Amino acid sequence: MDGICTLANDRVYEQLVALLNSIEAIYGEAMPVCVYPYDDNTTKIAEEIARRPNVQLYDNKDSIARWDEFACEIWDAHPTAQEHWQNIGSTKYHRVGTHRRFCAFDGPFNRFIYMDADTLLMSQLEHIFAQLNHHEWVVYDFQYTDLSHVYNIHSPKLTKVFSQNRLEKEIFCSGFYGSKKGIFDAEKQKYLLEKLRQGEAHILYDMAPDQTILNYMVMRSEISSYNFATELPKNERTGCCVTSPHFEVRDNTLYDKGNKLTYIHYIGLSSQLFTRVCAGENIDFPYRDIFLHYRYLHEPEKRPEFTTKAVAYNAPPSLTTRVLKKIGLAS
Questions:
Q1: Cα separation of 71 and 111, whole Å?
Q2: What is the set of domains in the chain, with CATH numbers?
Q3: What pLDDT band is residue 326 in, cutting at 50, 70 and 90?
Q4: What gap in Å lies between CA 151 and CA 25, rounded to an integer?
Q5: Out of 76, 80, 225, 254, which could bridge 261 as a Cys pair, Cβ 3.0 to 4.6 Å?
């Protein structure tokens, strides 16, 4: 069985609803969806999921525990990550819940497409599933242009583990990918942990913990991968990130030079931003109307009506706010 999966908790409730609605707008209830819990904070999303017959909240506690343990063992092998995280005020294991997307490798779907909760589906996914007939891993993004958010580019071991040619072509973003159940079984996990404990953990980039591990898992296992962003003709490729200002809006769908996007990723925007906008704050951000359309697809009467002047999401704080922060009266 094919399906779509994502990772969420109540902090990303607004985004999860928008994502589920965008999937439903294209597939109706025909596309099954599995939501992996980031943590135990799932009361609101569980209520939402219960209303949707094609959506399930993953509850295999043994699977979750195994992948939690796997992620922690990886970071236990890293020479500096835990000290770094604690120095910046994080915990021993930084954003450990992000690794629970790995549960898809023993989840309900034989073939699946993972989408971050801060994405929206813009078109059908048959081209992604079709490539899974030929490859174990399928992506569609331009992360290969920025190695620094995938691996530790200062590690002298990096080019000893992977050739420069592979590092320039094979890396990907962990926000959207297609893969298959069972490709990282217990034996493969053991092999990867052995390599990491032998010193290869040094190449991992600790501020994108799930992304660096996924890239390492795929590349170190030498499984077959395919990236539409490098394989499609240039005139057919589309972007996917909210940071691209040139997308055209037509009927609540985004187009890039006439080509319909597969998905839009609101990467880099805080979940709090979406929560505040849905609560009525008039904060503007790229492609906000697209997000609001899908968030309130089934309840347009609840869509916020803004009466104040819009403030840009990245606007500098006002003088008053800066003064209050300085004297400790604002966060």
A1: 23
A2: 1-331 (3.90.550.10)
A3: low
A4: 36
A5: 254
